Fold:
Amino acid sequence: MNTVTERLAALRKVMEEKNIDVVIVPTGDPHMSEYECDHYRCRTYITGFTGSDGTAVIFRDENLVSGLWTDSRYFIQAEQQLKGSGNQLFKIGIPGTPRIVSHIIDQLPSPDSTVACDGRVVNFDTFAAWYDTLADEGIELLDDVDLVGEIWEDRPPLPKNPVYEYDLKYAGKPRAEKLKEIRAKVMDYGAEVFLLTKADDISWLLNIRGSDIHCTPVPLCYFILYADRGRLFINEDSLPADLKHALGADGITVEPYDSITQAVRNLEAGSVLLSTLDTNSNLYTNLPESVYIIEDSNPTQLAKAIKNPVEIDNARKAHFKDAIAMTKFIYWLKQNVNRSSSIGDNAHNQITEMSAAEKLYELRSQQENYTGNSFDPIIAYADHGAIVHYMATEETDAPLQPKGLLLMDTGGQYLEGTTDITRTIALGPITDEEREMSTRVLKGHIALASAIFPRGLNGANLDILAHAPLWEVGKDYGHGTGHGVGHFLSVHEGPNNIHWTRNGAIGTTPAFEAGMITSCEPGYYEAGKFGIRHESLILCKSVSRGQAFCSAPYLCFEELTLVPFDPDAIDLTMLTSREREWLKNYHETIYEKIAPHLSDEERAWLKYTTDIY
Structure:
């Protein structure tokens, strides 16, 4: 079955056999990971949509409206990839778009119907909300059905890659110390046991790493923490003997990965702490009725988000190495796009979006301790830049021309840390509109990155700084301005973020704390024309304020990313003296640190980007 149409026909046949009226196919895996391994890419398999987020709803009756729900990052991409599939695009966040369950209820001709999903890849919060709403209408929801898996020919197996100890010189804090701290927090909740299912949280807590999940250096695993021991559920063959011994010395037993469900069923404890956002429905519903479930936040998340001094020092090292590769890459593009284009679009050495991504990978690979991408690179030329999470394919791979804007959102995984950077550069002449909007986005970036604010504020409180230069002219962008970033872990990590909401729900994320690493990435997008994003990672730090009225603790940000903004894409006359001073200081810092590692030609170009401000 090579086409989406064929796969949908096969799925509907199985639905008919099992008397299931609707299948919900979300994006995800049992660990609520940001990126799933190939084995769990059911939504992509059944819809053809390759974006990293979205939920499909497939009706058995072809006359009913099946579709895909996704957010503004993927509207353009989804419209293109869903063509001819029979699936309609439902745009999340747009007025008039129905919620998934509301649409199911409206479409079904009879309340005596059955809806199914794979509860392993749905968190319990989401499943419970679906279940309650459908039950009120007399509709049954099953969470133990993997129908896409039944029709998926040659489905990739679960990965079983090697797991290794994450050296203390990178982690900064011993496993035993982390376990002690988290146990204390679990006790504060009044719980005897902590059920932890997120692979990145477990990897942080136990100082282990792997490569089972796409672009994220973690193994597939579960963990149950007791007051005096721990149980790690993982592919045992992936662990070397010395790591098993080290884990055992800290009171941790290793058990088969697929035995977690039975272990949860047999759990002997008076109370268990878990996060319903992080725990999949299948595990939650298998907990014994005798266990008192304490549903609260996951205590590892905030602890993981506040980096220790060793992690911070290593993060600076990772960004330094990444900056060398990125600066070389930008210079290479500016020098070679014009040359390759002049040879002809069909020339062997024509630079395209995909070949540019390969060049960047090559340059990053030359840096010590580089292990791979932190996410699939977004190299988006001209109108492709308006597709917020665009990913070039052989069909869409655009040749780069010596004109217009190129948006490059990429990141690397180094043993020292995780990077995420976006720079939008001019490959040649650009329009006045492109230059103005690029400058406004940069003004928003500077306003947020240079903010000084009292402790206690969260990202929702500060987001206006990034949006204001666009709001002044009636423009905006739909995605969040910032997300937390892990330490050689997930490139998108909670709980810190920067994202205001129109409904006033500003208290949903914790306040900034010194040690948090967050992205700063305002943008602007004109469908069919261009896209702009200027992103750096920023480290939250304490700052001393001498005035009496500023006696309370204050915080500021340090720009960890050390890659120049392209002055060829900026209208310098729109910048205030303060903004130009910030850019000058930032570029001087870049030149001082990066220039010694560049060629003479690269160094001369970097000097130009510094002196112009």
Q: What stands out?
A: The chain has 20 helices and 28 strands.
